[in-house]
Design goal:
Length: 180
């Protein structure tokens, strides 16, 4: 199991495996890959918001992973698919056409098979009830949060933050802060 940031490094030509898609546990190329969305997000006691970028970077990672490892089967487990930007919905549809499988659910457990290092993912599928699937590798798409130092920096420069600690912006001008 790796985070999305670790997976990005694995795919990078300057990464630990020089761009080869290998799992860290035994350096074998995975044949099946799962992405779990909204890890640490959208839960009232943690982060009750959507980061709005994770769905699309998981989709990109799945497509790039399939380009790196021919025959790779990718499954993205999601709560709600968020394709916020222009052309993102088309990208999502192209990913499905390329073979990325999307499952709407909240996985309830992940267990490692110590012999094979594969991961068994358990989730509730609305049509089938409780389902268990095995994957060679699992990527956790973690929600974004501002760094702790952002508050101090914002105070120092007089930039307003919203209630979540992100830079406050206008809905119609999302790249404009309270300070020119």
């Amino acid at each position: 199991m790796v985070s999305s940031l670790e997976f990005e490094r694995i795919l990078s030509a300057s990464g630990p495996y020089e761009g080869k898609l290998l799992r860290p546990s035994d350096h074998k190329a995975p044949k099946t890959l799962a992405f779990i969305q909204c890890v640490g997000s959208r839960e009232a006691e943690k982060r009750n918001y959507c980061s709005s970028v994770c769905c699309m970077y998981a989709t990109k990672h799945a497509i790039v992973g399939m380009e790196h490892e021919k025959g790779l089967e990718c499954t993205i487990f999601y709560i709600d698919m968020r394709a916020f930007g222009k052309g993102f919905d088309n990208y999502f549809e192209r990913a499905k056409e390329a073979g990325v499988r999307y499952v709407r659910c909240k996985p309830s457990a992940i267990r490692e098979d110590h012999a094979s290092h594969n991961l068994r993912l358990v989730y509730h599928d609305n049509g089938q009830g409780l389902v268990s699937e095995e994957f060679d590798m699992v990527v956790l798409s973690c929600g974004l949060a501002p760094a702790l130092a952002v508050r101090e920096l914002a105070e120092k420069f007089g930039v307003s933050l919203d209630e979540l600690g992100f830079c406050a912006t206008d809905t119609l001008s999302p790249v404009q802060s309270s300070k020119p």
